[in-house]
Amino acid sequence: MNRPLRIALTKGRLEEKTIALFENSGIECESIHDKGRKLVFPIDNGKIEVMLVKSSDVITYVEHGTCDLGIVGKDSIMEHGKHLYEIADLGFGKCRMALAAHSKYNGEVSFFDGYSNKVIATKFEKIARDYFAQKQMDIEIVKIEGSVELAPILGLADGIVDIVETGTTLKENGLEVIETICPISARLIANIASMKLRKSDITDLIKKLKI
Ligand code: PRP
After folding, report:
1. Tell me: the pLDDT tens digits for 34-46?
2. What spacing in Å lies between the alpha carbon of 188 and ligand 1's midpoint?
3. Which residue's C-alpha comes closest to atom 5 of ligand 1?
4. How many Cα atoms within 13 Å fall on the side-chain side of residue 82?
5. DSSP string spanning 25-70?
6. For residue 28, how far is its CA from the centre of ligand 1 (angstroms)?
7. Residues with CB under 6 A from ligand 1
8. At a CB cut-off of 8 Å and minimum separation 6, what does 42 contact?
9. Ligand 1 centre and the CA of 165: distance in Å?
10. Model pLDDT for residues 10-23, shown as the tens digit of each residue
């Protein structure tokens, strides 16, 4: 008999909505409601195993085939994903990737004007590089891991590339969106080999999910 289908699930923001989707689709998720410090959860009466991991690790586990499926934001796929299938947009976790800067850039002075290379703070280095490459703009990237909004406030960067959900963080820190780079939402991803080897299990699960 096959081992249970393994799903790497991004812990935090996407976790609750994924469990709600599973339960609304009739998949039993009892073990996840009493997590403690456990990291592996049998659901669907043992037919599926869910691992709760960080978003970038979801990609790693799926690409290595340790997990057959993953649930992760489009931002992580764009930043870290290489060899995987993106098989469904789950429709939740909606936000956008945006270039933002100090509000002084609104009005007469455009962010894109000027001759000196802009400094961009971000934890999404690849997304930022691709975005500015498309605009044929040379920029310098400063990698920041948390509260990237601080960088332009302190003068470390001219702008940031980051996730914007409600816009509250930007607003409360005197920043605003200069341009939306792309919409983001939670995606179901699959390991390339698993899509062949576990095709019927994966297809059954997708059919069951009320997406
Ligand atoms: C994200 C993002 C922004 C904030 C935007 O951070 O980096 O800081 O959410 O949300 P808003 O538009 O609704 O204000 P998150 O809270 O996920 O924490 P992180 O910095 O640890 O990624």
Report:
1. 889 999 999 999 9
2. 22
3. 164
4. 6
5. TT---GGGGG-TT--EEEEGGGTEEEEEE-HHHHHHHHHTTSSSEE
6. 31
7. 146-147, 149, 162-169
8. 4, 31, 48, 49, 50
9. 7
10. 999 999 999 999 99
